[in-house]
Amino acid sequence: MHQLINPKIFPLARKASFMPLLALLMATFILSFAAILTKLAEFDLGPGATIFNRYWIAAVTFSLWESQKLVFPGKPEQECKSSGHLTINDVILFGIEPLMTFICISLWAISLTQTSVANANLLHNMTPIFSTLGAWLLLKQQFDNRFLVGLGIALFASSCIEFEDWFIAPSNFTGDMLALLSSVFYAGAFLARESLCNKYSVSTILLWSCFLRAILALGFTLIMEDHLFPLTQSAWFSVVALGIVVQVFGHGLLTYSFKHFSSSFVSVCLLLDPLITALFAWIIFAEKLTPLNMVSFLGVIAGIYLARLGKGSQKAG
Asked: Per the structure, how many domains does the chain have?
């Protein structure tokens, strides 16, 4: 029977990739709240305490999820698929992923105290450059011109919203550089998480990742900051939302997408994050929003679609 939609012409319409792509786009939307919630939490907490509360709450949530799986086990074939022997390489990856993420989030949280939300989030999402370079150098993954052009378009469109702010507010240079450096570590964490997804379930990866990040954040906070837990209801709301909404649901959907897409393509899709965050920052913090944002949004969408058509978007076999 003749197909109404040709998957060769419209690869996004293929059923096999629709649900992972939908999960990735939902994750991007949810993660766009992270900067806003972090900014709100830091009215009462330091960066380290904000990170610690975010991760211990997420770790407890994932622990409860794993516990219910013991009471209500899934299908035997699903358990066999997710099981496997822990190797030295796995241990290294389980250690590298939370360490790089902790450094990344720490740099980003500090940058939010020294630059605007939109600036910090934009530079924090320069990850596609470094994840693509890392995948090419370390994983020997190949990317065609279509993917690279799509990446370039998405990066340029995303960057346009902050060109004027960079010229107007040069005093934000330190915060901008910290946010940019955080994207380098974010890319490394993405590559490690992509590798772990070949063998382990999403909840297992994020449980151990959040647990180790919480330990790192606890040590940092006890040394550098005055108090560990929020003192106000608004701060508690912010860290609980960071832990459950952003970390559990947002990063859960994001990690699920690593089972189907390369870390390079995932990071390209996350370029929508600063545009959505800029809208929320305009509403909540009265930060500047111009018509250029809409043009940038369309440009990022076009770049993502072009990158999806290119070689390098699918997870390597």
From this structure: 1
Full domain range(s) for residue 134: 16-66+86-309
Residue 184 lies in a domain: yes
Whether residue 9 is contained in a domain is answered as no
Query: Taking the complete model, does pTM exceed 0.85, yes or no?
Result: no
Q: Rounded to whole angstroms, how far apart are CA atoms 225 and 232?
A: 17
In a domain, residue 75? The reply is: no
pLDDT in tens, 247-276: 999 999 999 988 888 888 888 888 777 677
Q: Evaluate whether residue 1 is within a structural domain.
A: no
